[in-house]
Amino acid sequence: MKEFCFEGKLLHTKENQASMASLSALEEAMKSGRVLESICYLCDSEQNLHVQLGTFEGVIPKSEGAIGAESGKVKDIAFISKVGKPVQFVITDLLRTGQSVQAVLSRKAVQQQCRESYLRYLQPGDVVQVKVTHLERFGAFVDIGAGLNSLIPIDMLSVSRIAHPAQRVREGQELCCVLRKKEDGKITLSLREMLGTWEENAAAFSAGQTVKGIVRSVESYGVFIELAPNLAGLAEYNETVLTGQAVSVYIKSIIPEKMKIKLSIIDVIEQNESTPLHYFFAGSHMDAWHYSPACCEKVIETVFNK
User: Fold this and answer.
1) Does residue 183 belong to any structural domain of this protein?
2) What is the pTM (predicted TM-score) of this model?
3) Final residue of a domain: which of 93, 115, 137?
4) CATH code for position 86
5) pLDDT, tens digit, for every residue of 77-112?
6) Beta bridge partners of 49
7) How far apart (Å, rounded) are the C-alpha atoms in residues 214 and 248?
8) Residue numbers of the domain that contains 97
9) What is the pLDDT of residues 224-280, one digit of tens each?
10) Is 47 part of any domain?
């Protein structure tokens, strides 16, 4: 299986820069079919994408800009939105006019290679590196390779519930995810299995501590407060706090057999930048993930080989 990466990963590599250093380097890259990457600086009136290859110019015709572009399945915004962003491509031709040289490029060809040589071989449970491209209320779209998008549904971003993906991830953020399912050619990813079990997260806390949390839900029977993306506790009802606020909380007790953490709200505090995600799994594949402790009757798990 040949691996492909999300757009932006190759941009500053020595190999990528060396392949654009001279005409002979471009000719070698074309001959070998090497995947290159550059920033799109222009989308012209016909939606052709223009990039700079060192001192040379390259053009990705609209029909080669993405899979489905030639049939009109890709909307114009998909090309317009590439300006100022990295795009991957292969060189298909070098056109010479006098002393000038223009490279003809294909992004579609890289995407086809990515599908055929990489994505088709991925299986549920495989861990992949992706980059967040845009957010919707129902989830985060990510570049899984060569600009091809996959979805992380909002309920797969963490165990702790959130109202919008922006509360967990941001556009441009690089993530490690696990492939949850492949269905009808679509790949759905999940982040929560990478963020640890209940016990792994709870191990960072102990009764008697006062720590920071984020209010995720205010209910009549109590306030759910996130201590970590995969760990939340319950405090007594407090009418003065609002969803999304940062609070300091006193940990009254931690009860593994019930997967409960009892909290007491101390004060509303200033919201600082979000803490970077911490990954508890470092492998390349997981067969199953068991979130709940063995001593707990309630079972929360993901089995990927079903």
Assistant:
1) no
2) 0.92
3) 115
4) 2.40.50.140
5) 889 999 999 999 999 999 998 888 999 999 999 999
6) 43, 60
7) 9
8) 14-115
9) 999 999 999 999 999 899 999 999 999 999 999 999 999 999 999 987 666 789 999
10) yes
